[in-house]
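Progress note, sequence design subtask.
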């Protein structure tokens, strides 16, 4: 599934020509603050990063659809809770690497201010890097659907990102919450 999404996004990037003035494309670069929410996570925000690109397909003068393939590193701090049972993980910082494709509905309020929201496809790339004490994978490396919402002011963006049910550590629901701040460069 990840390869199919990557192939589709690559074809879209390669097929867009500069002569198509309606369609826009660019690059994204930013930092993020992430935290895990669940019984095995400490409620500290950890610094990570994201890098990617975007395509902008206008629907009207103020409304557009914007897919954004990106790579991000979300860092979370785990606790040593339940150390006597097999489904626990050693405490410390964990770096989760995701390939994500948010598909955002973007609305321009005024020329330099936009709001957006949408669903996103997420694939954990290093899910087998962290194991539980019973040697099982600690994090779910399958595909996940999350959501993103935020705003842009000129070239700068702020967004909130959510991915649910990220681990195998407990029967409790564990989520990833992330705040992103970055800059975008329009290529055309």
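Output:
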């Amino acid at each position: 599934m990840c390869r199919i999404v990557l192939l589709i996004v690559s074809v879209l990037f390669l097929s867009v020509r500069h002569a198509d003035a309606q369609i826009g494309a660019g690059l994204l670069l930013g930092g993020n603050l992430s935290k895990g929410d669940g019984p095995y996570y400490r409620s500290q925000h950890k610094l990570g990063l994201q890098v990617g690109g975007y395509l902008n397909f206008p629907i009207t003068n103020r409304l557009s659809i914007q897919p954004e393939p990106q790579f991000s590193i979300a860092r979370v701090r785990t606790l040593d809770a339940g150390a006597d049972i097999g489904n626990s993980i050693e405490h410390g910082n964990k770096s989760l690497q995701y390939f994500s494709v948010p598909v955002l509905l973007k609305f321009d309020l005024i020329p330099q201010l936009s709001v957006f929201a949408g669903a996103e496809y997420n694939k954990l790339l290093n899910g087998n890097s962290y194991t539980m004490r019973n040697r099982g994978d600690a994090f779910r490396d399958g595909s996940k659907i999350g959501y993103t919402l935020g705003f842009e002011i000129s070239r700068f963006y702020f967004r909130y990102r959510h991915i649910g049910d990220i681990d195998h550590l407990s029967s409790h629901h564990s989520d990833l919450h992330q705040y992103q701040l970055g800059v975008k460069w329009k290529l055309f």
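Residues 41 and 141 are 18 Å apart (CA to CA). Work on this subtask will continue into the next period as scheduled.
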